[in-house]
Amino acid sequence: xxxxxxxxxxxxxxxxxxxxxxxxxxxxxxxxxxxxxxxxxxxxxxxxxxxxxxxxxxxxxxxxxxxxxxxxxxxxxxxxxxxxxxxxxxxxxxxxxxxxxxxxxxxxxxxxxxxxxxxxxxxxxxxxxxxxxxxxxxxxxxxxxxxxxxxxxxxxxxxxxxxxxxxxxxxxxxxxxxxxxxxxxxxxxxxxxxxxxxxxxxxxxxxxxxxxxxxxxxxxxxxxxxxxxxxxxxxxxxxxxxxxxxxxxxxxxxxxxxxx
Length: 260
Prior knowledge:
By secondary structure, the protein is α/β, with parallel strands linked by helices. Helices cover 45% and strands 16% of the residues. It has one domain (2-258): Alpha/Beta hydrolase fold, catalytic domain (Rossmann fold, 3-Layer(aba) Sandwich), CATH 3.40.50.1820. It is built from 12 helices and 10 strands. The protein is globular, with a radius of gyration of 17 Å. One of its GO terms (biological process) is monocarboxylic acid biosynthetic process. GO terms for molecular function: hydrolase activity.
């Protein structure tokens, strides 16, 4: 069992290894994790430099379609040399890369096996620029919410907020995306097709980017999808309850990849 691990912007493969240590300890020891570093050096993500030393990386410097596609080509080369992968585990910007890779593959090379057989997305959304290019309809409300959530995340995750408030800094986006339910949020982005491999979507109700994670779940096949709200912010909580739940979902994804 081989797992591709894609970190968040302004972190690294080694940081991601640390971030998932609590639930990883509950998984079988024979799983092989491949923690990539993004191809670009980056400033630290907000608050990350308090806990982790450099270097920090990102998967692209600007998130236009051309930049995402270039990194997809870079990732495809890595997979060809080091894969195949049964599962991809992604956080934040890594989710944008992983979902884009699946969509590009589905559009361009559907006759070939997908880059991985199952996917776990944690606290991240799809790249809206990629969705738009592929014919997805994104509502004006979804666009506005995406911009507002990025600003809110930067404020709630910065060093001063971490030091002053700790976990209490997470307030989500006001009224949890206007009070919309997950089902209503999924209807804000309509798709000509869906990501068709088994997927797990893990997000936190206090994360300003909560809606982005729900939106991503909406472009994945519902019959092959599982979701879990860990109740926290833009993070992977290390409590026993959350770690146990994520480990169980990980095992489900492993089983699905074996039969996919």
